[in-house]
Every structure is written in C-alpha cells, then in structure tokens.
C-alpha cells in the first residue's frame, strides 16, 4: 500500500502516470470533505486525465491515511501535507486542482508555495471571511443521520426542492455507504470539519499570480456560485466558469472536466 510518511501524517496516495507519455504535465488533485479514494468515481478517470500524471490521496485520518495523536489541524496543516506529499514523489512544480474542501487546502498551498504551483483550479469552493464561506458542514454533521441526509441532499443541488427524481438519485447515492454520509462522524472527519469552519484566505488571495480557473455549480448550495465569483474577482487574471449542476457539477456537466483539462494543458 503506497504510504507517504510525513512530518505529521501517513498519507495513502496514488500516482497515475500515463503509459508512453513523455514527461506529462503533473496535476495534484486535492479531494473534498470526507473523501476516500475507494469511493467512486475517484480523481483519476475524468475526461482528459490521460494527458497528465495525476497524484491524489486520502486526507489525514480519512480513508487509508492516519496521524499520531489528537492534534486539531488547521487548513495550513492540510496544505503542508499536500506539499510534503509532492516532495515525497519528487514533484517540484505541478498544477493543483482543489475540489470543495480540497479547494480550501489548494488556496493555502498556493499561498504557501506559489513558485511551485504552475496552474491552479479552484472548484466548488469558498475563501471564507469577507468573501463568504461555504455552508457550515460542522453544523450539518451534528444532526442525526436521517435529518442530515435530507439537508445534505438539498444543499448538494438546490434543484432538488422541485426535482424529486434528482433528490431520490442523490439520496440513494449517499445512503449507499458513501463516505460523505457516514452513519457516525469519525474523529478524522470531525477534525477536518473544524479546520474547514476556520478557513479564511479572503485577505490574501490577491497575492496569487499563477494562472487560475475558478469553477462553480449554478445550483450548488454548499459552495454557492457567488462565492466562486468572489474568489475569481480577488485573484488577478483568474477565470470564472459556472457550469450546469450543483456541488457535484464536475460529474453533472459534461463540459466541466474538458474545460479544466484544456486549461491545465494550455
């Protein structure tokens, strides 16, 4: 099992390098809240991924990753994990795709090591502070499982209030054992939610100068599109793309990943 033993964590990771590709561009995909690489569809099979070397991992104390002790990590610690993982696999420069919570980690990573990030994609995420935060999931996960499931479905896609078929599909997806909706909230997820609740890069995003694409879902109730618009306005030269979907827009809109891949390859 590929484990990177870092200063604070042991991270399970996967590196998918394309057969026959000569020095493919490197892309670190930082996943979202409660993510587990064993959950489909995973961060490696998106349209265009075959053009890149793609690295992703389970966050500390989630999936097959772990830490020692009960340290309450801040977002800076999650960013340090990602940078140490890049060091572990020998990546000095790379593009970053941060999704949801991963987008928050990606912001901290890019601010911490801007010279190492060649391109930055911030998808379905928020900056916090004056630019607005994502929905407070730490409050949602404090609810009972049944109440949490109903609210989570409504937040994942705001159209579910009118579209019962979509609501049923999302509920079935989550209820089938997806790590985003555990029966009980494990300690690692609780610590991740706590770091998420304190995330705030709003006053610092103007420091970023690398090419940046900000991607949002038109019907996202967790990271509403106006949060993405605020991020794009704060980063000089950043492009904003709003796609047709909710918090799962990267799967819902077939135009989303191809645009991201084109941006990463440009």
In helices, the fraction of residues equals 25-40%
Total domains: 1
Task: Give the helices and strands as they follow along the chain.
Answer: EEEEEHEHEHHHHEHEHH
Strand content: 15-25%
Can you identify the CATH class? Answer: Alpha Beta
Protein structure class:
alpha/beta
Key phrases:
266 residues, alpha/beta, Rossmann fold, 9-stranded mixed beta sheet, 9 helices
How does this structure look, described?
- The chain has 266 residues and is α/β, with parallel strands linked by helices.
- It has one domain: Rossmann fold, CATH 3.40.50.1820.
- The protein is 33% helix and 18% strand.
- It has helices at residues 75-88, 101-112, 137-140, 145-156, 164-175, 187-197, 225-234, 249-252, 256-265; strands at residues 3-5, 9-16, 25-30, 52-57, 66-67, 94-99, 117-123, 212-217, 239-243.
- Strands 1, 2, 3, 4, 5, 6, 7, 8 and 9 form a nine-stranded mixed sheet that branches.
- Helix 1 (75-88) packs across helix 2 and helix 4 packs across helix 5 (164-175).
- The longest helix has 14 residues, at 75-88.
- It is globular.
- The model has no long low-confidence stretch (mean pLDDT 94).
């Amino acid at each position: 099992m590929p484990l990177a033993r870092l200063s604070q964590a042991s991270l399970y990771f996967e590196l998918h390098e394309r057969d026959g590709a000569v020095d493919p561009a490197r892309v670190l995909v930082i996943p979202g809240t409660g993510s587990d690489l064993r959950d489909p569809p995973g961060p490696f099979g998106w349209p265009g991924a075959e053009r890149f070397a793609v690295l992703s991992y389970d966050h500390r104390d989630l999936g097959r990753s772990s830490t020692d002790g009960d340290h309450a990590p801040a977002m800076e610690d999650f960013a340090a994990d990602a940078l140490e993982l890049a060091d572990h696999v020998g990546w000095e420069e790379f593009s970053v795709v941060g999704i949801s919570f991963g987008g928050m980690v990606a912001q901290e990573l890019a601010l911490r090591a801007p010279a190492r990030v060649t391109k930055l994609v911030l998808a379905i995420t928020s900056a916090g502070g004056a630019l607005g935060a994502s929905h407070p999931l730490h409050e949602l996960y404090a609810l009972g499982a049944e109440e949490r499931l109903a609210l989570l479905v409504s937040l994942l896609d705001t159209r579910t209030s009118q579209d019962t078929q979509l609501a049923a599909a999302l509920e079935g997806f989550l209820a089938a054992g997806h790590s985003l909706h555990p029966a009980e909230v494990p300690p690692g997820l609780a610590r991740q939610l706590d770091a998420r609740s304190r995330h705030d890069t709003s006053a610092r995003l103007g420091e970023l100068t690398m090419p940046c694409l900000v991607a949002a879902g038109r019907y996202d109730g967790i990271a509403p599109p106006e949060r993405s618009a605020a991020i794009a306005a704060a980063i000089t030269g950043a492009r904003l793309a709003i796609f047709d979907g909710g918090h799962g827009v990267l799967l819902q809109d077939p135009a989303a990943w191809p645009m991201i891949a084109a941006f990463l390859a440009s």
